């Protein structure tokens, strides 16, 4: 049966390693002894995705643009989290002209700034969809 006590026991026994390492049998492992040699399930992948999106939203809320982010329309916040997931929050914070436009409520200009970037040149279809969500927010 899964209990907090069992989880804590296993955590103590396994120890936590943040990066991929080889266990005693030479198998690729991460975290608290989680084998990843053969990959992960789609459910595990979605769990990680959801968890990381929550962390990124919290990071944006604590950042220098936190107030701007908090006051955006939901569609714009969703678009920015998409960008953050792809490039990381620090890179997203580098879109200074986009953030300035968002601070003024100029969603059209913000979308244009998102498209005027290396991100958009590398991922044009995705960037187009993201800019569309910003524009229509």
In words, what does this structure look like?
- This protein has 137 residues and is mainly alpha-helical.
- The chain folds into two domains: 4-35, no CATH class; 42-135, Lysozyme.
- The chain contains nine helices and three strands, in the order αβββαααααααα.
- A three-stranded antiparallel β-sheet has the order 1-2-3, with no helix packed on it.
- A hairpin with a 5-residue loop joins strand 1 (17-22) and strand 2 (28-31).
- Helix 6 (96-103) packs antiparallel against helix 7 and helix 7 packs antiparallel against helix 9.
- It starts with a helix and ends with a helix.
- The model has no long low-confidence stretch (mean pLDDT 96).
The neighbouring-strand order within the major sheet is 1-2-3
Largest sheet: 3 strands, antiparallel
CATH class of the largest domain: Mainly Alpha
E-strand count: 3
| Uncertain residue ranges | none
Q: Helix segment count? A: 9
Q: How much strand?
A: 5-15%
Shape estimate? elongated
Overall residue-averaged pLDDT value:
96
User: Which structural class fits the helix and strand makeup?
Assistant: mainly alpha
Share of residues in helices: 55-70%
CATH topology of the largest domain: Lysozyme
């Amino acid at each position: 049966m899964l209990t907090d006590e069992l989880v804590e026991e296993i955590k103590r026994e396994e120890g936590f390693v943040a990066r991929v390492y080889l266990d005693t049998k030479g198998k690729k492992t991460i975290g608290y002894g989680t084998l990843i040699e053969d990959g992960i399930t789609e459910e595990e992948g979605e769990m990680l995705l959801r968890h990381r999106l929550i962390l990124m939203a919290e990071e944006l809320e604590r950042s220098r643009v936190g107030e701007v982010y908090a006051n955006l329309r939901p569609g714009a916040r969703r678009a920015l989290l998409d960008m953050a997931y792809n490039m990381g929050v620090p890179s997203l914070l580098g879109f200074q002209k986009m953030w300035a436009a968002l601070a003024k409520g100029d969603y059209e200009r913000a979308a244009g700034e998102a498209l005027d970037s290396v991100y958009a040149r590398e991922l044009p279809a995705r960037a187009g969809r993201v800019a569309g969500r910003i524009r229509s927010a």
